[in-house]
Predict the structure of Allantoinase.
Amino acid sequence: MSNTYSLLIRGGKVMLPEGMQQVDIAVEGEKIVEIGPSLSGSADREIDATGKVVFPGTFDGHVHFDEPGRTEWETIKDGSAGLAAGGGTTFIDMPLNSSPCLLDKEEFQKKYDIASHDSYTDFGFWGGLTPDNLDRLEELAACGVVGFKAFSCYSGIPEFKGIDDYSALKGMEIIKKLGLPLMVHCENDALTAKLGAEQAAAGRDDAWAYFAAHAPITEIESITRMITFAEETGVKLIIAHASLGKSIDIINAARVRGVDVSVETIGQYLILTDEEVAALGPVAKCSPPVRSKENQPLMWAHLLAGDIDYVDSDHSPSDPSLKEGVSFMKAWGGIASVQHTLTGLLTHGYHARKVPLARIMKLTCENMPKSLRIEGKGKIAVGYDADFALIDLNREYILKADDILYKHHVSPYMGTRFKGAVDETILRGQTIMRDGKIIGTPRGRMIMCKG
Ligand SMILES: NC(=O)N[C@H]1NC(=O)NC1=O
Ligand SMILES: [Zn+2]
């Protein structure tokens, strides 16, 4: 007797953890139940994936969807639609730029309620660590945050204070005990402030002045210091959006010493250069800034060598008015990018630099849920959630405003060519995006960490 499944995906080239194979995938309800060549049986729905690559749904560990309180910047509904359009099935939302920020259990409940109602994809939350909430970390852990996020510098949001050395040390001690990771945005505030003041005194407020204020040493010094605290406390440290080859060298050296540190980068540092950002203007402003064209190949070399653990989007949009008609120095620092990570890596990595798809899969799907000990996500394997991105590796398109599903249709990549596109995204066995359009209503759920 043959089986009846709810979904069969046939004929695709499937990215399994062990590599690409021509196999069929059988789904029952929300889970993958069988994987093999030419599976027998029928299904309520069959997808012919001939000519396509079946990727796991991507897992974006770093987005700012800004709810509650800053819905004119971004919303969970629109942000998760953008994620799904780019092949994503799970995001982890940052504790800022919502208002209030996620610093205690009351705020957790508000975010959770909105996401449970509005998210097209599955989701989780980073709790905030600031000097003000050392006594609230335990309750946030009990709510189910995947870990904590801190800034070693000004965060851009006045109510989300950067950690001083005391709260870094004490926060790490507490977070270590809670068994969770800490992600830190690393820039040396004292230095960026003074270097910025030098630029202002010279009458400069353009992109190059901003790059000079956020010089490489400001990132390198802060990463080094956070590693020192992590080494002392034993906390699992994740360096957020490293932008420099040298930052990865420092992290590698710490790992050799046995420090539990992993590193994220973002598509912008792999795709853009400082010269391009200066030409594009505030739409391409982020912190740390996009670096030089000499640095960019170092990032790709580290990525190919397996030294980088995660490529996330750091989708951090703002009200467009904060980017328009203001100097580069004054403009909001953050780039809208949640839809473009995978297609960006296919274009600039797989096609342009022969980066293996297996590496791209680890960076965008597999490594983050593994680090966060999230069950059932990030891999195409029996027992895992039936989350997929169906990719046409050779489809080319030029990004237009209408293609964008997140709230504000702005992007530093507007008008640029991509090669490698997501045709369909499937979350727990059901299609949520096809041909650039959302299908169905929000049914995202909070992901769970292993106890
Ligand atoms: N607050 C906030 O979103 N900051 C983000 N923006 C950015 O460019 N880097 C960040 O960390
Ligand atoms: Zn961020």
About this structure: The first helix runs from residue 76 to 85. The CA atoms of residues 389 and 410 lie 24 Å apart. The chain has a mean pLDDT of 97. The chain has two domains: 4-54+382-438, 58-371.
